[in-house]
Amino acid sequence: MSVIDDVKNRLDIVDVVSGYTTLQKAGRNYKALCPFHQEKTPSFVVFPETQTWRCFGACGEGGDAFNFVMKAEGWDFSETLRELAKRVGVEITPFSSEQTQRQEESERLQAILDETARLFHDQLLNLPAAQVARDYVVNRGLSAETVAAFMLGYAPDDYRSTLQHLQMHGYSQDEIVEAGVAIRNDKGNVYDRFRHRLVIPIRDSRGRTVGFGARAFAKDAVPKYLNSPQGLLFDKSQLLFGLDMARRAIRETETVVIVEGYMDVMQAHQAGFANVVAQMGTALTETQLKQLDRYANRLILALDPDMAGVNATMRGLNVAQQTLGADQQASFDPRGMIRYTGMLNMDIRVVTLPDGQDPDDLIRENPAAWEALVGRAIPIAEYVIQQSTASLNRHSSYHERERVARDLLPILTATESDLQRNGNIQSLARRVWIDEKTLMQWTQRRRAIQTRAVPTVHEQRQLAGRSSYNHPGRGSKSGKPGQTTAPQESLCLSLLLEQPDRLAAANRKLRELQTQDAHVNPSLGPLGTQDFSRGDYQAIFDVLERSLYQDELDPLDYVFDYLPHALAERVDQLLALPHEVVRRALPPQDSATAYLRTLPGVTQFTSFEIESLILRQSRIERELQELYFLQQDSQFEENELTDYHYQERLRDYSRARRLITLTLRDIRGYARNV
Ligand code: ZN
Fold first, then answer.
1. What is the whole-number distance in angstroms between the Cα of residue 61 and the centre of ligand 1?
2. In this structure, how many other beta carbons lie within 10 angstroms of the beta carbon of residue 140?
3. pTM for the model
4. 522 vs 364, higher pLDDT
5. Ligand 1 centroid vs 665 CA: distance in angstroms?
6. What is the CATH topology of the domain spanning 3-88?
7. Cα dihedral angle (459, 460, 462, 464), rounded to 10 degrees?
């Protein structure tokens, strides 16, 4: 259980609110003068059963203990969590001093790297000794604009100059070594790491310099590329070269092309193929893939055929069983990739480059040919099958064909999608001349003895709580209502975190609905914090919403920058909501919009818009439920209820509920008939 849930479960909303206003018992609930607005008759209600509160008066807001205290004290979520945790005796691992120190340290290193990048760039442009570097850049066909955009630089043939420059800027030797710009040898001498090389700054997805790749000029120099050492900022498993420049194009084309080298990326961008990034010489990691999955549906690997890594991987397939799970040094791991295709629902494809050519050469010689090549990329599973069965023909022995098939099966069935698994087996059957049924049997026997590591679809659904969905307003009779998981809220928030700009479209839909009935004014307004019953979700939504009203940062980066520390874990959980579940909520955009396009009287709804209607529906249910509570308990006198616009509100909610229900029914009914 997360700290937030732990604290929340130990709190009693009645105790919490009593600290701020005098509560008066009213049936099963409590009423009070609203602490957030001036009033003479109480319109503020606390519901112990659901551990929630609501002001039925001027504020019209509600929530849980967290957002009550946030509002009452004016604290942010982190402060509130800290204080409430203290109150109930839950210990929060202190990130204060240690994390702040780390933060300061990384900012300092960042500044060193920025200064170094500036220095190198300036030297490339102006230093007489950098002529060799300038010639090199011209020979590689890189334009002045590209040099500037990627901030290429030159490190002089000198052991001290960079070090001295940085020391003059007030940085200590230790810091400069820590930043990876200088090296301390066994004797304790400190000297420049990069000497007489073309230096390429490596930036994270937000464009901050986190390290360098430095290329030697001599053909036989070893190493050809010298990278920054792994460190606080430079983590190869997290980085993709060029992502900061490529992000927009990747999002627009929903496609990312992954190449091997820095030069390939620069050449591609220069030629207008802006959706190209490079892996950092290691196997693609899950972190990198998830990062790309935010922007792209299709991932194309452009692999150099004579690259040692690929050959090693393909050889490795012969002993696939032993290498399963082993950490390979290959540049990509087909088994992992095939699994991800299913897991991330990503279309992963491979382009094989002509022998001896890399994207750099290819693009320079003939950009159109590159474009055509990328267009002909084949699915990763197909690629693996082709490569591994290349030596087989119809006359190969059955034994030989069986061996290849048995080696490939565990890889080809590693996907979580049945459709893909069957497709892969079909395709393999054709290439090894063994019928599908036999292949299927071999697979099942294998699968039966394997312990299952990945959760089944059913388990995933339970994880996301979608199948156990209850209207939050009803609460659960058993257990503490404060523990409701609010699955629709999780789902919508997770979808928004993935793509914040979905919000605007969903709000437009609500507005369209609103125009159909003049009487449903407030209850069909734009999505807001009040659509979420949990304080932590409200706080996350708040940051998400703000991210859309600025244009300095990518909304997602803004969210991560401005999110209160205490919510980081919660956001990770939401982002990790099993992709299967999230994707099921989002059928392929085309089919969703296709069948809704023709819906009479209703303009097309995307899947998120439908999910957000369901979210609004449950909020209305929740608030109606609260109003009914009050009516049943009838502890409020008739005129009091009128004062709170009780009847008016009830009418408004009922009409809005009807409108949403009808719309959802239309959509669903239509979808069923298609
Ligand atoms: Zn109020």
1. 7
2. 15
3. 0.59
4. 364
5. 35
6. DNA Primase; Chain A (3.90.580)
7. 170
Q: pLDDT (tens digit, 9 = 90+) per residue, 250-266?
A: 888 889 999 888 999 99
Contact 237, 284 (CB under 8 A): no
CATH class, domain 110-234, is alpha beta
Confidence of residue 460 (pLDDT cuts 50, 70, 90): very low
With respect to CATH, is domain 250-453 assigned 3.40.1360.10? yes
Better pLDDT: 34 or 418 = 34
Between 486 and 64, whose confidence is greater?
64
Q: Cα angle vertex 357, ends 353, 363, to 5°?
A: 85
Ligand 1 centre distance from Cα of residue 35 (Å): 7
H-helix or E-strand spanning residue 2: none
CA of 55 from ligand 1 middle (Å) equals 5
Residues with CB under 5 A from ligand 1 (ion): 34, 36-37, 55, 57, 59
User: Do 109 and 101 form a contact (C-beta atoms < 8 A)?
Assistant: no
**Do the strands 347-352 and 378-379 form a parallel or antiparallel pair, or are they unpaired?**
antiparallel
The residues spanned by each domain of the chain are 3-88, 110-234, 250-453, 484-673
254, two tokens: 């929903």
The CA 311 to ligand 1 mean position distance, Å, reads: 68
3-7, 109-113, 182-186, range with the lowest pLDDT: 3-7
